[in-house]
Every structure is written in structure tokens, then in C-alpha cells.
UniProtKB/TrEMBL annotation, chain A:
Na(+) binds at residues 86, 89. HAMAP family: FluC. The gene is fluC. This is Fluoride-specific ion channel FluC. GO terms for molecular function: fluoride channel activity; metal ion binding. The lineage of its organism: Bacteria, Bacillati, Chloroflexota, Ktedonobacteria, Ktedonobacterales.
UniProtKB/TrEMBL annotation, chain B:
Na(+) is not transported, but it plays an essential structural role and its presence is essential for fluoride channel function. One of its GO terms (cellular component) is plasma membrane. This is Fluoride-specific ion channel FluC. InterPro entries: FluC. Its main location: membrane. One of its GO terms (biological process) is cellular detoxification of fluoride. It holds the Pfam family CRCB. It comes from Dictyobacter arantiisoli. The gene is crcB. Keywords: Cell membrane, Ion channel, Ion transport, Membrane, Metal-binding, Sodium, Transmembrane, Transmembrane helix, Transport. Na(+) binds at residues 79, 82. Fluoride-specific ion channel. Important for reducing fluoride concentration in the cell, thus reducing its toxicity. It catalyses: fluoride(in) = fluoride(out). One of its GO terms (molecular function) is metal ion binding.
Amino acid sequence: MVSVVHKEHLQLKRLLIVFCGGFLGTLVRYLLSHTIQGILGTGWPYDILLINITGAFVLAFLSTLADATVYVTPERRLFLNVGFLGAYTTFSSLALGDVNLFANQKIWLALLYLAGSLLGGVLAALTGQFWGYKIVQRVRARQSIGVQDQDELLGVHASTQALRDEEQLY
Amino acid sequence: MQMSYLLQLVLIGSAGAFGAVARYVLGHLVASRVGSTFPFGTLIINVSGSFVIGVLFALTARHLLSTTGQLILATGFLGGYTTFSSMSWEGVQLARAGSLRASVLYLGENVVLGLLAASAGIALGW
């Protein structure tokens, strides 16, 4: 009984963390998209391309740190990766923007947008992962540490231990 | 004027926050049901979100939905619901796990099904 209540409390807390991250990520995307369109115009979806590629880079960087339990706790991963970056980047606008380019007979621009997004996203994820590993290696080298010391580094509480396995997904 | 802009920002942000929570919950549900390492959750989320954004786009073009409504639902909710960063990351992870084929298949499915879904949504809403 007690554990059920505890778990529900945890669930609610997790949803709240994702909510807050999602709120901020959506606003940053909206405001940044406006700013970029103001500078470069609305002829081509530079805004979504730039937002998606930067987001893919940071997500890969943080996920690599989180997988190695360096600096990024499960809670921070929920806030930053699932909430903020998940909402900051977007797929639906990419799909709609591309369909509209095709519909307006701008076939090459549509293909360029698609290829640029996919290749850019994969390259950004690989680069982010590379720099993530660099940081992990540096931390590991500075102090050859055991699991308990890692938890000190993270500031992990006992309750977050259980989250770790479940959040490996993200 | 200033106040209504601020209100609009809060509404867009809140809609995106609900979209992010919906993605998180649905992603967990799908992962626990499917029990496979293939990231079906993000695929379902991106394809369904692309379909709905197509419908909203058509409804706005027909003046059945205001541009503010489109901003809140499409830019806000669907923007927070669908995700590009997780898709890229999952694509790279599939390749790292040794299956380049699964990686290409996954990214290709997202793009092809996403574009088809957006087109179908536009057709339905028109």
C-alpha cells in the first residue's frame, strides 16, 4: 500500500518534470523560429532545420552523459531530454513543411530539406555522442571511481536508483 | 495587445507541455506493450502527429480554425508531442547496436510515413 502511494507520487512528479521541460522547450522553439524567420525570411524552413539539428546534437550529448551516469541524473534527463529537447525539436512541422514544398512543385527544395534534416540530424547526434564520450572519459580519468562515488558525483538519492532502469529508454 | 501576446505565449507553452507529457506517457505504454528494442513509440507519435498537423493546416486554410488556434494546437501541442531529436538519437543507437539496416529502415519509415500521414491529413481536412 505504502509503496503504491509512493510510486504514484513518483509518477506524478515525473509527469510534472516533463511538463515543465516541455513548456520551456516549446516556447524557445516558437520564439527562436520567429527570430530566424525575421532574419532569413519564410521562403525556406531554415528555422525548423536549425532547431532540429541543434536539438539532436544536445540530446545525444546529454544522453551519452546520462547513460554513463555522469552529471545527468534520471530527473535531469527527464527535464532536459524528454521534456525540453523533445518539445524544442519537432517532427510534425518538418513533415507539413516538406509536403507543402512538394505541393508547390519545389521538388528539389523539398528533397534538400528532407535530406538536410535527416543527414544533419544523424551527424549532429554522432557529434553530440562523440563530445559526450570525451567528457565521460575525462571524468573517468580524473578519478577512477566506483559506483558509490559516481552517485556522489551525481548527487543521486536512493529513490532515483529505481528510475534509472526505466529511463534508459530515453 | 502586450497582454494578449503574453497570454498567447503561455497558451502555446502549456499546449506544448501537454504534448510532451502525452509523448512521454504514450512512449512508455508502447515500449511496455511491444517489448522490443525497435523504437515504435516515437514512430507512432511522429506519424500520428504529422497526420493531425495536416488536418489542422487544411482547417486553417478553410478558415474553420483561427491562426491563433493553429499556433496553439500545431506549434504548441503537436510541436511538443512529436520529436526530431529522439528520432535522430534512436536512429544512431540502432546503427551502433549493429543493425545499420534497422537504422535506415527506422529513419526511412519516419520520413515516408510522416509525409504520407501529413498529406492524408490535409486531404481529410480539405
